[in-house]
Structure formats: structure tokens, C-alpha cells
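Forum: Protein Structure Q&A
Topic: Joint prediction for protein chains with partners

I've read a bunch of threads here and the consensus seems to be that you should model interacting components together rather than docking separate models afterwards. I'd like to see that in practice. Below is the full input, 661 residues plus whatever partners are listed. Could one of the regulars post the assembled result?
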Amino acid sequence: MFNTLMQAFSLISTWEVIIAMLAASVYGLVIGSLPGLSATMATALLVPVTFYLSPIAAIAVIVAASTMAIFSGDIPGALLRIPGTPASAAYADEAYAMTRKGEAELALGAGVWFSAVGGIAGTLSLMILAPPLAEIALSFSTFEYFWLAFLGLMCATLVARSSPVKAIASMFIGLLVACVGIENPGGVPRFTFGVTDLFGGIEPIPALVGVFAVAQVMRAMLTPEPPPIPRRKFGSILAGQWTLTKKYHWQMTRGNIIGIIIGVLPGAGADMAAWVSYAMSKRFSKEPEKFGTGHVEGLVEAGASNNASIASGWVPSLLFGIPGDTIAAIAIGVLYMKGLNPGPTLFTEKASSMYAIYLMFIIANILMIPLGIVMIRLAAFVLRAPRSSVMPVIMLCCAVGSFAIGNNTFGVVTVATFGVIGYVMEENGYPVAAMVLGIVMGTMVEQAFVTSLIKSDGSILPFFERPIAAILAAMAIGALMWPVLVWIGRRLKRPSPAPAE
Amino acid sequence: MRLPDSVTGLFLVGLGAAAAYGGWQLPPVPGQPVGPNVFPLVIGSGLALCGLAIAFGIGRTFEEEEEIIPVEGEKPKPQSKLYGLRALLPPALLLFYVAVAERVGFIITAAIIVFVTSTALGARWRLALPLAVLAPIVVHLIFSKLLRVPLPIGLLPMPW
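Posted by a regular:
Agreed with the consensus. Here's the joint model:
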């Protein structure tokens, strides 16, 4: 173990990794702090860059950028009441109320400090949870993988903040997208309509860039520009944070744990973690009446929660290739590209790389404190950049980045198409995250499903015969029935005058 | 772009049915009960069922929460019917890139994209013009020089 740790240290102490990490941190801080540019988008736009880096440096870039972006979304939330990323939306009101009370330093300091603590707690959970789970996962057959993937997809629809039926439909659309191409059990061109470019299937990364970046530029075309930030002088950012840590240590721990659990659940990411934790904090607080008037307690808990979910989202990603959130979905794409195919054997065969990932998460979260403070002090300048100068550059990066993925222009067409699909879906209440999960997991789900069916000779029974498979199946079916039960329950409680039929 | 649920639902029914039918048509693997046709069949049917449920308004009660997320402040009243079409500008510009980049070259195409996007978002000449000159050059420098992406040269080759 000590040897592997040493190897991991030597893996990350190269100039390439250090420079990549620093650059990605600054990039993540800037993109995260600009309203409308989410952490997922920041990560997706980085993927083309990772092609040209070594595997470890590529992962370093993703780890650093996503960690920083989730924190720096707090900055415009506190100063403008406009969250920089959806993950900060839960407590933007609260943080802004603190700023108006003249406690901007405390709000932003709590953001950076508890984000770092949360990130480290998330990393610890990754270190502790992943290896034993890998042991169990080694004995998994395709039946277990099928149910696991199914459960993952169901989770994504359950936690979506919209109608579960629409979320399931989005997921099916994603799976359908993954059907395209010749990479299927029969090796026949499927849904290619004679287009040669479609034979290789639709790459997840251009689809992600389209859904998260182009769709955002499209929305920006129709929404007004956020107001410029007022210039202000900040006092000490970290003053008082230690007192807060001691006073709210229980809230902080609870936030960390909730964040870790939500991060591990497939499809649910930092924004969900922040909402749940903020609500939890208010529910269990001794002074719930202070919430919404600039009270730091909820900030502590939710800030600790959303960053914890980032690292723990990597647990199912590394083990099963099932993304814990949309950022992890991108990370999986990069892992495959770099020959670190997700799976339980990763922890035995590439142990040093795994340790390197843990180390990079810890370093990124420590680095966040000084860089975050600098970013807070410079926020007035960065946030002054008008949208009309940021969005065109994003457009260029979309075009060039998607071209770079396969060095052909079909990638650019994919990005444009998915931009429109993502925009229309989001406008009509179909959660795009569920679709993304479907696209990323499609091939794996199909493989597990069809191989299992071939093994069982078309019978359904063996899907439930192995003990772990049976447990997973029960959970998955429960997850599927849950919205139905809730719906029926509501109907019974409050009989609606106009039945749907 | 907000469509009634019945429209999107029925569209999904059609899409699901088409997928299921398309999957059904695929040739099976000889000597095997399941092949490439099973998965699209399952997904297509599922999608069609969801579409039906959406068209009939099942599960709409869960959607109330969604409106709370204050991501970008209040939406303005759209000025005219054509105003909504502005949203199609970004994908149109990307397709424009695909169509002309090979012939005209990266720098000029990129400059046009930047200028149009910037102006559409309300930038003045004084901002949009320098941005349209500088941004393509910087992006070209990063992607072509550092990352060695073969960007089309076209009419205006860069000195590096």
C-alpha cells in the first residue's frame, strides 16, 4: 500500500499534471462564477483538451475544474443573488441576504471553507467505499450489472425535479440515442439511415457539449443580461470560519454525509445535494425562523454537501461505469479514452492511478482555499465581463472542441443537433440529465441485458435467482413503482374533479 | 418553445413506435433467440407508453416544484413571435461553420460566428469587432498550435 501511494505521488508530481491542475482550477473558478455557465458545461468543454494530455493529467483537469466550479458558483449567488451554477441555487437567497446585512465576507468565507471541507469528506468516502465495493463487484455477473444499471437509471428519474414520467421518457430517449451505430450484439448498422457518420454511433461527449453548452447559449439569446456587480472592498475572508466550524460541526457533518449519499446515487449531483441539505438544515435547525434572513447555518450545511457529492459521484463511475452525476458522466468518457476503463479490476490493476485520483481530489480541495480567496477578491472584475463577450467564445470552443474529438465535422453537427434537443427538452420540463445518463449507459445496459438473456435462453427467471441480483431487482422495481404509488396516494387523498381519462 | 404536453407526448409515442418497428425489422443473429432487435423494441415500447402517459397528463402534479429554481431571474415578455427564433441562432451558426469552414478557413468563419453571437447578445460595435478579431486568433493558437487540432486553413493562413 505504501508503495502504491509513493507511485501515485510520483504520478502526480510531474510538471504536466501540476500545470494542468492549476490552469484547470483557474478556469473552473472563472466559468463557475459566471452566471449561466454550469460546472458540467465547464467540464464538458475541457474534454477536447484532455485528448492531448497524459491520463493522469487529463483526470487532474476534470477533478480540479469541477471542484472549483461548484464552489465559485457561490460567489455571484452571494453578491448578486444569481447562482453561478445550479448547485448554488439552493442557498443564493440566503447568501445574498447576508451580503445585504454586511456579512458578505462571512457568507463567501463559509462557501470556500465548507466547500473545501466537504470536498475532502467526499474524497475520504471515495477512498473508503470504493475498494470494498470493488471486492463485492468482482463477483458480479451480467445479471447484477443489468439490475445495477437499471437501478441507476431509475434513480436518475426519481430525483429529477420534474415529472417522473417525463424523466423516464428522457432516459428512454437517451437509451435510444445509444442504440445508433453498429456497436450492438448483432454488429448490424442500426438506426443509421445509410449515413456513414452514424455507423460509429453518437459520441456521448459532443452530445453532452450540445445539451449543456449550446443549449445554454440558446437560452441566453432569450433572457436578459444579469446586472453588473457593485464594486466593494472585502475584509478578511476566513475570519470566523473556525468558530462556525465548531458551532455548526454537526450540521457540517450531516451536510457531508447527505452530499456523499446523493453523490453516490446515479444521476443525482451537486445541485440536488445542496437542495436536500438546505431543506434538511432548516427542518432540524434550532432557529428555523432565521432562515432566509441571512443566517449562515444553511449555507454551512449545503456548502459542505454539494462539494462532498462531487468526489463521491466518482464511486459508481469508477466501479461500474455508472455516472454518479453529469460531471462524472463526462469523467467516464475521459476514463475510457485514456484506457482506464471503469470496472472493479481498476482498483487492483491500476491501484496507483486510483490513489493518484484520491490525492488530486485532496489537493484540489486544499488549493481551493487560497485560489478561492483570490477569486472572491477579483470577482468584481471577472463578473464585469459581459455575456456578449463570453458566449461567443463558448460557441467557438463548442465548434472547435467537437471537431477535435474525431477530427471530422460530424461532431459539430452532433453538437448543434443536441443543442436544439436539449433546449426543447428543458423548455418543456424534460430533464436533460436523465437523457445524458441514458446516452452514457446505453451500450452497457444493452450488453448486460442481451448477454443475460442469451445466457438464460430467453427466460426471465435467472434475472432473480442470484441473491444480489434479487436484492437489486427488488430495489429497482421498488424505485419504478414509487412514483406510481405516490400518484395513487395523492389521488386517493384528494379526489380530483376532472379525471384524466 | 413551450409546447403543450399532448404535443410532446404524442411525438414521443410516434418516436417510440418508430424505434420499436425499426428494431423489429433488424435481422436476427442466426441461431440465437436475442439479437440487436430486442433492445430497441423494449425501449421503443417504453417510450411510447411514457408518451401516452404524458399526453394524458399523468404525473403532471410533480412538476410544480420546477418553477422555483431562480437560475436566471425573471423571464421577459417575448416581444414578438419571431423573438423566440433567436434561440435557433447558435445551432444555425454551428451548421454554418460545418458548411463553410473547409473552404473559407477557420479564422474567418470563427470571426463571423463571434461577431454575430456577440451582436445578437447586445454588444456594441466597439466590443464585438475587436472580439471577433482576437477570439478566433487565441482559440486557433490554443487548439491548432498547442493541441495540434488540424483546423482548416482556408483563405487566411496564420503565420504559425
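Residues 104-137 of chain A form the longest helix (34 residues).
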